[in-house]
Each structure stands twice: as structure tokens, then as C-alpha cells.
Amino acid sequence: MRHAMSRFRFPHVAWLFVCLLSHGRVWPAAPSIAVEAGAERVGLHEKIEFSLAAPIPEGNPFDPDHTALDLEITAPSGKRIRLPAFYYQPFERKTMGEGRRQQDWLYPVGLPVWKARFAPMEIGRHSAVAVLHGAAGEARSKPVVFECTPSANKGHVRVARANPRYFCLDDGSPFFAIGQNVAFIKSLSESEGIFRKMAAQGANYVRVWASCEDWGMCFEGRKNGWTRTWNWKPPVADDPQPPSGAPAAKCVRIAGDKNASAEFVPTAPMALRAGTRYRLTGRYLTADGAGITVDMGGRDPLNLPAAPQWADFRHEFVTAPNQWWLQRTAVRLTGKGAAYLRDLSLREADGGPEILWEADVNRPVIGFYHPADCFVFDQLLECAEKEGIRIQLCLLTRDLYMDRLKDETSAVYGRAIADAKRLFRYAIARWGYSTSIAAWEYWNEMDPGRPTDRFYREMGEYLEQNDPYRHLRGTSNWGPAPRAYRHPKLDTADLHYYMRPTTGDLFKDAVESVRQQAAWLLKNSPPKPALLGEFGLADDKFMRSNYGNDDAEYVHLHQALWASAMSGLAGTALPWWWEEIERRNQYHHYRPLAGFVAGIPFGDADLQAAKATVTNPQAGVMGLQAKSAAWLWFYNTEATWWKLVVERAAPKPVGSATLTVSDLADGPYRVQWWDCWKGEIADESQATATGGRLSLKVPDFARDLACRIIK
User: Fold this and answer.
1) pLDDT recorded at residue 101
2) Among the listed residues 321, 327, 317, the one whose alpha carbon sits nearest the alpha carbon of residue 274
3) What band does 233 get if pLDDT is binned at 50, 70 and 90?
4) With 50 as the cut, is the pLDDT of residue 281 above it?
5) Angle, to 10 degrees, between the axis of helix 188-200 and the axis of helix 371-387?
């Protein structure tokens, strides 16, 4: 490490000089740039991070059309990989409070910088060169070298070639998705805790949204402390005195009688340092002789007189010794009239990064990626990597795009594709390295009636050319979408399904619900991995059913997990109400299933639906089989969640049942009977297949049991 870093280390003074000069300015001539590798050696499929000394441009630093900084990597085979670098704001993280009152304290530290992240896919010596394309032309750095060594990392999630209904990893080992949704990341610490609990119980897959607008983690969306997606009359207006020739701009407007006010409420608690001096600056304008008071929690308010023209203001204050958060901030009129605010900024008095970026009503909604939320996902992804969790990441905020996808031939449609490519470029740069990114999901529940074929085609081609790791591509719709399932540039088929009273008897039977939905999805999609990406017990308005409160054992979830695993899907049904799973600590349902499916050769060409029958009609059976093995799940058709939970009926046990499995290779087999609730082998025996058929007696059971038959 010392050799590589000393060779390309840039002096701290020069680094600071480049960053300071670049903030707020376009460089007059192509600058010199440098790249520094974070290590001399890195394991296969593991992260190496680069620091790039390059100016940060004027305007939106996320816009590659203005400035693009890339890393050109040459692999040992001679293959050239162009990897985008990304704009990065460092944060300091602490956890404040105790128990369920904990909060994540995330505070920006230092100036923004350029970084690049890479995970090599070849063993051997690599070289990397930074390339800057900007307003002043192109600049290239000197090369830096690093070595890739073998590792235990099995690589990225792929579609299995031999049996494309299933997943595998780069090393060829099967991957079956067992997990749930953790869609809204509101608390980083709590979400990390969920990941750890899931992993401890054998789960390996999570569906996460990065598209929650202002109620959770969102890379691109309307996050602003003055407005909310549910507020139809935000205090935002056109600039009443725009500079001559300047583009149209917005500002905050407060109007009415004395004490009329507007409150700034950040979308997440905004961290401050205790006992620290801060400087608040901005511009204001008043009408009709009114003045304003800026109140930041009742301590040392700022009183400003009437200002008929735009005027600058500056206010310094010191946080209390135990104050770690921005307190309630409001702007109030001191007389009847109107007032306008713009260009609000809050920084430490000695300088530093912007803290009040959510106060900027002119910040672009599309094409700006929220620095704090991007850091949150950095942390969450590191946790997933440590715990062996793979993430299906929903990236695009649907409501920013859907209305623009009405006419495939329109310029608006093309602009939406360009915007999506820009976000994916950033996602590839910052998180694409990670084998814990299982798939990019374009939308959560797009309108299946929209003409999205062109979007999926062009985005698919873009990712094929620009994502060096070739992550899987998927999407979801708010209803059945066979057209999307069949699209050649979508690698998965995803259906969301909730058991509701309007579904009749299916509402009362989780096994039959999942079995029918899985069969429909497999029938209406080509050979590709299919998933029930959302699943739950709901009322007719898709809210959580009150019956779920009575299901103390979460029988409906247990049955859905096993039924989906044995149905031919590429993973379990992914339950939606993760807060209830967390509150009631229901993670233990994953371990028995994870143990049972561990030996199934998902992805093998000969894996198919089991050809199994049972003589007792009260016993249902689902499963998978290969040429010389079978994995079966038996369930009592009378032990539905409705009968157990609502009717409180003790079902008649299943007895005197004989199993017959067809199309097995002849010879002796080991039979293991599996307790589906304890996750352990309850009994073992032997049986022999003759003429391709194997028959054996099924042990009596009350609810369900599973069986492994191995030659």
C-alpha cells in the first residue's frame, strides 16, 4: 500500500487548492488531475476505492453532460473497462438515544470530493487512469496499479444458464432468494438491525426502495423542508423581483396578518454539532412594510426590518452544549403583508459543507442525488455485504417519470430515458461494485398500461454497455404485466400479490393463493426468474388486515414461504409489512426453510416440478425433483391460517397417506423427514425406486412437514 499511495499521493495543500477553486467556478483551462488507489491488493469481486483529485464544477455536480469524470481500467486480459466516478460528500455518523428512541446523527464533514469504486472480475495486475471530460476539454491522470487476488466472494447474482428459471452466482453455485421487503429506510440503525436478524435466521434477500420521495430514503425526489408531497399549497412562489435577464427562480413566500408564518421541517432530523458557532445567511424581501423574524427554536431569534428590495442577511448563533439537532425553525411576519426568502444557507461559522440544502426551493428535483441518503445506502450496503444479504434496489421514483412515458415518440419520453440513464450512471459508479446488489429494479409498481417497451429497451442496452458488472434488470407493476414479463431486456418477472377478502376463498388459504399466483406467473412469463416481489395479508384497500393481529404464530407467512419455495419461483414470496415482522420478531420462519432448500440444485437443467401424488386427499404436496432426488413439502389442506386463527379449529391430523414419486432413477434412496417449524430432521429411513417409481408411507402430521429424497 505504501508504495502505490506514496507514488501518487497529492499534497494536502494542492488538494485543498483544487477543491476550493473549483467550487462555484468552471475551470478556465483543462486542469491536471490525479488518482490514488486505496490499496495495492484487493480480492476478487471485492471493493477497491479510489480518490480522484479533480475540480468540482459549477452548477449540478451530478450532471455528466456538463462534467464527466471516469476511471479507465485495464484488466489483466487486456479488457478495457470505463467506470464512472461519483461526487461524494463525506458524513460523520453517530447513534443518539437508547432503545427504540435511537436516532442516526448524520453530519456532513469536509468538502465534497470525487471517488470511484471498483470490484475486479479477473485475477492479476490492473491499471487505472482517471479521465475528465469538461467544459475545458479532456484531462488524463497518470496511471495507478493494483493487484487482484483470489477471494471467498462467490460473485454477483446471475440467471442460471442451464435453467433460467433460477438464479446462480458467478462461481456457478445456486442462489435461492429467501427474504422480505424493507422498502422504506427511515432509520438506518433499525434497518441494519433487521438485516442482521434476517441473516441470523438464514434469509439472504431484501427488496429496498431508494425512491421514497420524502418519507424514506430517496436518491432522486422532492425532498425539501418547505414542501411535502402531500402538501398541495406549499409556501413557494415565483421571485417577485428577478434580476434582469436571469432565469426564472422560486422563493419561499409568507403572507397574511401579523404572525403569519412558514415552518421549515426537514424530511429527517437535521444534525448539528453541540456547542458550535453557525452562520445562517440568505436574502429576503418584504412588501407593505412588514418585517420578519427567523426563529430557530426560541434561542436568539433573528429580527429583520422591512426590505422593499432584495437584501442580504447574516446571523450567527451557538448551539447549546447538548444540542445535536436543528430545532423547530419558522419564519414569521412582524406585521401584515408579505415576505420572500431565497438562497438560505447554514454552515459552521469557520466554514464547511452546506447543512441546509433541503431549504433550497430551486434545487432540481430530477438529476440531483441527495447526499445524505446516498451515504445512508453506503452504510446499509456495507451491512448487507457483511451479513450476506443481497438487495433488489428500486431506484427510480415512479411519479417523477410515469406521466412522461405516455408517448414513445415524444421528446418528453426521450428526456425521461436520459434522466434515468443519468441516475443509473451514478448508481453504477457508487454501488455497482457490490455483489450485494442483486438487481436493479426500475420502478415500484409502474402503470402496466404505459407504453414502456422503448424505455426498457433503451435502458437495457445502456446498462449492457455501461454496467461492467451486468447486474440483473427488473421492474414491477401495480397489476399483472405479461408484456413486461416478456420484455427481452428485463431479466426477471415480478408480481405483487396480496390476499384480500375480495379474492374469496383464496383469502383464507395462503398455500392455495401462492400456488395459483406462482402457476399464473410462470405460465405468463418466458423462462426467466419469477418472484412474488410483494406479498401480504391485506384488507380490500390494500392496508394490513386486522386478522394479522390475531395470527400470533404468523401461520400465513410460514405457509406462503414454503409454498412459494416449492412452486418453481426463484425465491420466496417477499412479505411487505416488515415493521410487523420486526415488532413481533417473526424472523425465525426463515431458518427452517433455508436449511431445507440448501441442498437443492437450483439452476440445474433437470430440476423440475415434482411428480408426486399422495393417497390421502387431505394431504397436499408441492415440490421439486431432479433425476435422482426430490424435495417435497406436505401440508394439511384443513390447517389453513383462517381455520387456525379465525375459526380457532383444531384440524384433523393427516394419517394413512402413501407418497408416490415418478420419474426417479432406479436404486436406493435416503429419506429425511423434516420438521418445518423447528428446522431439523425428525426421522430418517431408506426406500428404493423401481421402474422409475418410489413409494413410501408419509408420517402422520398435523400441519405440515417436508421430505428430502436423495439417491
Assistant:
1) 75
2) 321
3) confident
4) yes
5) 20
Query: What is the C-alpha separation between 284 and 294, in angstroms, rounded?
Result: 11
Q: What is the pLDDT of residues 655-708, one digit of tens each?
A: 999 999 999 999 999 999 999 999 999 999 999 999 999 999 999 999 999 999
Question: Mind listing the pLDDT tens digit for each residue in 373-407?
Answer: 999 999 999 999 999 999 999 999 999 999 999 99
Q: Identify the pLDDT of residue 25.
A: 38
CA–CA gap between residue 51 and residue 53 (Å, rounded)? 7
* Mean pLDDT, residues 429-453: 98
The CA-atom distances, in angstroms, between 107 and each of 111, 356, 361, 397 are: 12, 11, 21, 25
Domains in the chain, CATH or no CATH each: 2-149 (2.60.40.10), 157-219+367-605 (3.20.20.80), 236-359 (2.60.120.260), 606-711 (2.60.40.1180)
CB under 8 Å, gap of 24 or more: what pairs does 516-521 form? Answer: 518/563, 518/564, 518/567, 518/568, 518/569, 519/567, 520/480, 520/495, 521/485, 521/493, 521/495, 521/569
Percent of residues, the chain, with pLDDT higher than 90: 88
CA atoms within 13 A on the CB side of 698: 31
CB neighbours (10 Å) of residue 8?
18
SS (H, E, C) 79-136: CEEEEECEEECCEEEEEECCHHHCEEEEEECCCCEEEEEECCCCCEEEEEEEEEEECC
Q: Report the run of H or E that residue 581 belongs to, with start and end.
A: helix 578-583
What span, in angstroms and rounded, lies between the C-alpha atoms of 664 and 708? 13
The residue among 380, 31, 338 whose CA lies nearest residue 207 is 380
* 457: its cell numbers: 429497451
User: What residues have CB less than 8 Å from 552, skipping those under 6 apart?
Assistant: none
According to the model, what pLDDT value does residue 28 have?
A: 47
Higher pLDDT residue, 57 or 166? 166
| 346: Cα separation from own chain's centroid | 30
Q: How far is CA 699 from CA 257, 635, 653, 673, 696, in A?
A: 79, 12, 10, 8, 9
What lies within 8 Å, CB to CB, of 581 at 6+ separation is 180, 554, 557, 575, 587
Integer angstrom CA distances of residue 449 from 140, 403, 412, 457 = 46, 12, 18, 16
SS3 content of the chain, % helix, strand, coil (to 5): 20, 35, 45
CA distances from 148 to 123, 171, 246, 389, 432 (A): 5, 16, 52, 24, 18
Cell 423542508 belongs to which residue? 225
Residue listed under C-alpha cell 440444485: 601
pTM > 0.85: yes or no? yes
pLDDT digits (tens, 9 = 90+) for 544-577: 999 999 999 999 999 999 999 999 999 999 999 9
